Amino acid sequence: MMASSISYQYVIDPDEARAALAAFADQPVIGLDTETYWDYGARQNRLSLLQLAAPTGEVLVIDALTASAEGARALIENPAAMMAAHNARFDEGVLRGAGFEVAGLVDTLRLARRTLRLRSFSLASVSEHLFGVALDKTYQQSDWRRRPLSRAQLDYAALDAQVALRVYQELSAQLEEAGRWEEELLRAKLGLQPDEAEALNRLRAKSKTRAKRAPENLRPLTAEERLTVERLKLWRKQTAEQERIPPYLICHDRTLEHLAIVRPGTVEELVNVFGLGAAKIAKYGPELLNQVQASSEK
Questions:
Q1: Helix-then-strand count for the chain, H and E
Q2: Residue ranges with strand state E in the chain
Q3: What is the CATH number of domain 3-194?
Q4: Could you report the per-residue pLDDT of 115-131, keeping only the tens digit for each?
Q5: How is the chain split into domains, by residue range?
Q6: What is the arithmetic mean of pLDDT over 213-229?
Q7: In 3-state terms, the chain is what percent helix, strand and coil (to 5)?
Q8: CATH class belonging to 212-296
Q9: Rg, C-alpha atoms of the chain
Q10: Model confidence at 2, in pLDDT bands (50, 70, 90)?
């Protein structure tokens, strides 16, 4: 995940921007970042670039000074379109200053502070800790108002959006495994809707009384259970390739082993399986049940 290897589209035309944004419709989550310059007259940061990264691999860099970010309004203002940004408060302020009613931003800085133990929670520090990738922040303070922008500046901008997405994916997987994802997602989301605020309060109350813990020592698997795990791993690999994400973001090995042992028969029973929160059950639950049942029929 180095800047030189990033594939991204840089658009400077409004029509091209609208066409490119079609790839970001209906994505489960989108990495977002902005590059800005300081407007001395207005004494505020102005939007220069809007960067978006999708789990399917598309990375888009929109030049807000030439193409305008207006084509992304429907995405930015849609509460159902989840977007992950590091230090999202800053990006929210910049986008609001550009005239957008921002909705759906999730702050990976908040997620990192609730999940990791680090001296610094900057995107560079979190990236190095999680992925062993040291981000070069040389261009952070470069002149983002000047045109044309250099290839190095554009590489830097595209990488930050991609890393924000990967940080979200990794931290969500860790929190899902710990049974804390639903609550921490709501904690990290900016501008909670009334129903989301109510859900957060319920989860806080619930977490004080019960937390789903990982089985400390799963018993050795039987031969039949090992075959079930192998079948689940094959399904996980194929699904990860289709979604273009690492397999561990779907389920950890311990989750698959727990599934093989308890062999749930209904979606409701999946709640008791380690590493499966509501989001993953909603997305993968029926297929997980199909794979477990199919392995029993062999």
A1: 11, 6
A2: 9-11, 30-39, 44-53, 59-63, 83-85, 105-107
A3: 3.30.420.10
A4: 999 999 999 999 999 99
A5: 3-194, 212-296
A6: 79
A7: 55, 10, 35
A8: mainly alpha
A9: 21
A10: very low
User: What is the pLDDT of the chain when averaged over all its residues?
Assistant: 88
Q: Do residues 14 and 143 make contact, with C-beta atoms less than 8 angstroms apart? A: no
Strands (E), 73-191: 83-85, 105-107
Asked whether the beta carbons of 163 and 1 are under 8 A apart, the reply is yes
pLDDT tens digits, 195-216? 655 654 565 565 544 445 556 5
Helix (H, G, I), strand (E, B) or coil at 105: strand
- Tokens representing 294 are 């199919």
Q: What is the DSSP letter of 33?
A: E
> Could you tell me which residue, 206 or 21, shows the higher pLDDT?
21
Global pTM exceeds 0.85 = no
For residue 112, the one-letter residue type is A
Instruction: Kindly give the interhelix angle for 181-188 and 108-115, rounded to the nearest 10 degrees.
Output: 140
Asked if residues 108 and 168 have their Cβ atoms less than 8 Å apart, the reply is yes
Whether residue 231 is predicted with pLDDT greater than 50 in this model: the reply is: yes
Whether residue 17 contacts residue 76, with contact meaning beta carbons closer than 8 Å, is answered with no
pLDDT confidence of residue 1:
47
> Residue 204: which of 185, 189, 190, 183 has the closest Cα?
183
